[in-house]
Amino acid sequence: MREHERRLRTVPGxxxxxxxxxxAERLLRLVAHGDAEAFEDLYDVVAAPVYGLALRIVRNPxxxxxxxxxxxxxxxxxxxxFDPSRGSxxxxxxxxxxxxxxxxxxxxESQTERTQRAGALAPEAxxxxxxxxxxxxxxxxxxRALGTLTSVQREAIDLAFFRGLTxxxxxxxxxxxxxxxxTRIRDGLIKLRDVxxxx
Amino acid sequence: xxxxxxxxxxxxxxxxxxxxxxAAFEAHLAGCAECREEVASLRETAAFLGRAExxxxxxxxxxxxxxxxxxxxxxxxxxPSPAPELPFRRRFGWRRPLAxxxxxxxxxxxxxxxxxxxxxxxxxxxxxxxxAQMMRIATAPDAVSHPVExxxxxxxxxxxxxxxxxxxxxxxxxxxxxxxxxVWMVHGDGSTAAGPTFTPxxxxxxxxxxxxxxxVSELMVTEEPDGGSPAPTGPKVAVVAL
Lengths: 199, 242
Prior knowledge:
By secondary structure, chain A is mostly helical. Chain A is about 75% helix and about 0% strand.
């Protein structure tokens, strides 16, 4: 990603040069100083990714909307915590979104429900992604990248990232030892990172 | 031990650790640059996966969130600077078009001969760059602020950054048509160095002055013909002793 390469040129601990970074980063820096108009612009950049991820995880439009509101309020409240030397603005926002969505789904559904639901869905994970392939270039790239993973890696990531399972739950759902679940999540993500060229 | 913890980067990024494991891993992260780097890159990867799911939220969410932030206090940043008083929250009308700016802003031609020129007919991009620069100056550890008798304005400056920003609102337009304001750095020996020209945009002004400020005894604003002058010619509008 070109945006990402550009970000990496920022030396940690230094103020980023003015006008550099992705649009989202510049906006987030302004938001950190209480700029409501910049927040409005940032909303337009991040709301769809936030809502889409929340919806995928909680699988209920009303709940996804509530989660999205919490996340976007977090973005406003916590913008000053964003540190461009530690990652992109989009990754920072999506980290908040994932955490909120996963918290919500864990509160709403018992472990059994999630595991059963996950168990029922896991074999279709490929199809689930396939349906969305045409949605965007990103989705197509993700789909191709997921295709390079082993099925255990792919399912482990699907269960943890999109279903909100903890790693012991992933291990139970896949019938693999705990250590294996952790490792598959990690090496699966590393593989995705390398295939996607995310850095 | 560390090796074990190292294997948790993926599960950590996917929020798949329980509270105790998360705490242990974060303690480990603080001292392990390798893990921090891996976590950062895996976060970008996870964000990529998440972004591929993007779907427009119901339109009503936008209004609700924008309304809610007006009554929501922000957590203060970790900057240790003795934040100088600044009209930070002014609503720069020119920020609007930034909305979907897909292109990366280039700061080309910003620094010209020691003084940054902040033109009247600046592009939005220059405006954003200048504003970002103003924020850098204002958050510098050695930032100090002086009031300026020009509307409601301040000069905030950082010796370490060799830069100052004149920021203000309710600034009247130069009294004579076709004239602009210009900032000057006045040295102890009376010599002057030309700074940027500016005119109020709906009363708002922002001008960035760059140069070694350690020998500058005052900043002066005069009225000059459009385009500015190499040396002050017009009436003195404001003087700030540094």
